[in-house]
């Protein structure tokens, strides 16, 4: 599962960053999207769901769905 598909308010653990443009990967890592960190989607925009408001650790960010799709989560994320 990827972050863009995570149900609202469900917590998950980041597994890795999938293949994406190098500047996106670097920016996501700089924001704290690193393996082992806890993440959750707090809100989605009404039309089209873009952007997403996500929390990683104690910080909140707005991400485009395409960026969130680069964040792979542990396989048991839906069970949490």
UniProtKB/TrEMBL annotation:
Iron recorded as keyword: yes
Record's keyword terms, sorted: Iron
Source organism, top-level taxon: Bacteria
One GO MF term: transition metal ion binding
Domain Ferrous iron transporter FeoA-like: 1-75
Name of the protein this chain belongs to: Ferrous iron transport protein A
Organism annotation: Inhella proteolytica
């Amino acid at each position: 599962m990827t972050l863009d598909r995570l149900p609202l308010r469900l917590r998950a653990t980041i597994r890795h960053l999938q293949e994406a443009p190098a500047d996106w990967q670097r920016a996501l890592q700089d924001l704290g999207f690193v393996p082992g960190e806890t993440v959750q989607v707090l809100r989605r925009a009404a039309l089209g769901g873009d952007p997403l408001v996500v929390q990683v650790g104690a910080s909140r960010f707005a991400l485009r769905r395409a960026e969130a799709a680069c964040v792979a989560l542990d396989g048991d994320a839906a069970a949490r």
